């Protein structure tokens, strides 16, 4: 019965969708809009133990458990960017990007993760030199580095101490951040503290899908989030107090979200979609932009914890000082988004084993008319427009940098699907800017190169450039989408005709 009802809603929704979609916006991107491409250390660098680098949780787990990565692969060599960075900068220069988003491998600069100022050996000098060279060369080529401090690859040494659920990591991360600002900050104007921490907390400490693959859903995931928020805030305050006046950059967190479209207009479903947004983006966004956990998260986790006979909520409480310490620690919003799903309300699950998904209490589905990527993610450009508008309305109109957006396909060089994807999503960004007056100042394509995509190994190519992982030399070849993106960057326009301002 419920199923049938739902089907009707899906069909209604489809009608609505077709009306909103597909025409490419013919307005121009603002003159100062920045276009870039992205990567992350573990996914491209290789050199996993080169020149004194320490082990990350991904090195550790991919070596220890051969079935953790579904394809049985690892990123020991990956794109070999550790050795090929000079040639990559030539590619980026040819592409014409304004910025390149990459991450620093924490264990490459601090092999144990720990920066004790008295023990000079804690700092791995070749790691520092590697990033310093990369950053200098980018600047020489007029490409702005957008640097992430922590993109999934926690030093294993700190995982041995419990990883992110351990609140002591706040200080370890803060020391690492200070080192990065001190060593590289003169040339870095855009910092991001964490990349997609909800993926790490929800899937790394709440399931087995990401390293460290510790399944403590409903408890460890929230503890992880709490530490990450405090670590982020501490790094932000360090930047503010010790570096900002000389270095003049901006710093924020990169938060990921899927657009959550209500499966129907029923109040329960509309609330379920909003609840899912609050339990994903809001779990990080609300403490940072508005202050404290989202109300609905406090209420839901409190309610279920009580019925599970916990003596207090599984959601750790912030003190008043902590709320104030975290609130406002952003200079822009870094947003990663790839897809959209339909959300409906679900019935309350039995009380027993704690669980994040039971706390959220939703059902997700997709519209059968939506095209999908090789990852089976729905391609729904208007979802990004709605998400950008939601961020604007929920968080008081912040400046937004789209820090990731892209699609995986079958690896062909003739990647028309990728071109259509980026054109559609860039058009949605234009709609957000021109129709909804959202303050989006840049877009970053994921990814620069075909990369190691976590548990999917090399099976999900997202790159503008193809990488041949079977060849020791890891040759790069531009795909057709390079030509497309180059033209967009050069003209600030998506249409074949000249764009209007
Ligand atoms: C929801 O309501 C809007 C505006 O009232 C309407 O245009 C739309 O068709 C409705 N959507 C569904 C799925 O019923
Ligand atoms: C290795 O990883 C797989 C896939 O996540 C998992 O099913 C298995 O339990 C893991 N093995 C060990 C020994 O942890
Ligand atoms: C909580 O405690 C009550 C009273 O002892 C009991 O009836 C109920 O089954 C418990 N709930 C769970 C989830 O253990
Ligand atoms: C799905 O893909 C096909 C083939 O590329 C295209 O013709 C169609 O317009 C797409 N549908 C939507 C809803 O984008
Ligand atoms: C890969 O996808 C393209 C369309 O984007 C298609 O033309 C090509 O046949 C596909 N190749 C394989 C090997 O499936």
From TrEMBL:
Gene3D superfamilies: Glycosidases
Domain of life: Eukaryota
InterPro entries, A to Z: GH, GH_1_N_CS, Glyco_hydro_1
Keyword vocabulary terms for this entry: Glycosidase, Hydrolase, Signal
Keyword Hydrolase: yes
One Pfam family of this chain: Glyco_hydro_1
Keyword Signal attributed: yes
Signal peptide coordinates: 1-23
Family: Belongs to the glycosyl hydrolase 1 family.
Full protein name: Myrosinase 1-like
Species of the source: Molorchus minor
Lineage start: Eukaryota, Metazoa, Ecdysozoa, Arthropoda, Hexapoda
């Amino acid at each position: 019965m419920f199923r049938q009802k739902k089907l009707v809603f899906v069909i209604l929704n489809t009608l609505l969708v077709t009306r909103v979609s597909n025409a490419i916006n013919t307005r121009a991107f603002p003159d100062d809009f920045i276009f870039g491409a992205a990567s992350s250390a573990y996914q491209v660098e290789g050199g996993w133990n080169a020149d004194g680098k320490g082990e990350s949780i991904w090195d550790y787990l991919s070596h220890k458990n051969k079935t953790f990565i579904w394809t049985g692969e690892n990123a020991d060599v990956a794109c070999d960017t550790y050795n090929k960075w000079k040639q990559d900068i030539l590619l980026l220069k040819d592409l014409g990007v304004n910025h390149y988003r990459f991450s620093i491998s924490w264990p490459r600069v601090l092999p144990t993760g720990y920066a004790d100022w008295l023990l000079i050996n804690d700092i791995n000098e070749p790691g520092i030199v590697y990033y310093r060279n990369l950053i200098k060369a980018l600047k020489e080529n007029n490409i702005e580095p957008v640097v992430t401090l922590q993109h999934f690859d926690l030093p294993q040494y700190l995982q041995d101490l419990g990883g992110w659920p351990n609140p002591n990591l706040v200080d370890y991360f803060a020391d690492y951040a200070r080192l990065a600002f001190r060593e590289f900050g003169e040339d870095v104007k855009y910092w991001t503290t964490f990349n997609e921490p909800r993926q790490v907390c929800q899937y790394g400490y709440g399931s087995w899908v990401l390293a460290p693959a510790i399944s403590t859903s409903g408890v460890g995931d929230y503890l992880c989030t709490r530490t990450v928020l405090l670590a982020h805030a501490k790094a932000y305050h360090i930047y503010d107090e010790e570096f900002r006046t000389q270095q003049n950059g901006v710093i924020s967190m990169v938060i990921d979200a899927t657009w959550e479209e209500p499966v129907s207009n029923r109040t329960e479903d509309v609330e379920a979609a909003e609840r899912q947004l609050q339990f994903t983006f809001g779990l990080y966004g609300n403490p940072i932009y508005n202050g404290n956990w989202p109300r609905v998260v406090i209420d839901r986790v409190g309610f279920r914890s009580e019925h599970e006979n916990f003596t207090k909520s599984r959601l750790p409480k912030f003190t008043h000082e902590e709320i104030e310490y975290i609130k406002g620690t952003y200079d822009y919003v870094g947003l990663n988004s790839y897809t959209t799903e339909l959300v409906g309300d679900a019935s309350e699950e039995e009380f027993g084993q704690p669980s994040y998904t039971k706390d959220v209490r939703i059902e997700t589905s997709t519209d059968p008319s939506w095209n999908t990527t090789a990852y089976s993610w729905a391609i729904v450009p208007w979802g990004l427009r709605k998400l950008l508008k939601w961020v604007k309305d929920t968080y008081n109109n912040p400046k937004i940098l789209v820090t990731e957006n892209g699609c995986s396909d079958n690896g062909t060089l003739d990647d028309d699907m990728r071109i259509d994807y980026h054109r559609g999503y860039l058009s949605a960004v234009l709609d957000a800017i021109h129709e909804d007056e959202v303050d989006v100042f840049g877009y970053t394509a994921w990814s620069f190169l075909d990369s190691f995509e976590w548990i999917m190994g090399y099976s999900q190519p997202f790159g503008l450039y193809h990488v041949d992982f079977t060849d020791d030399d890891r040759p790069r070849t531009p795909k057709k989408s390079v030509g497309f993106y180059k033209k967009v960057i050069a003209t600030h326009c998506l249409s074949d005709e000249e764009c209007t301002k």
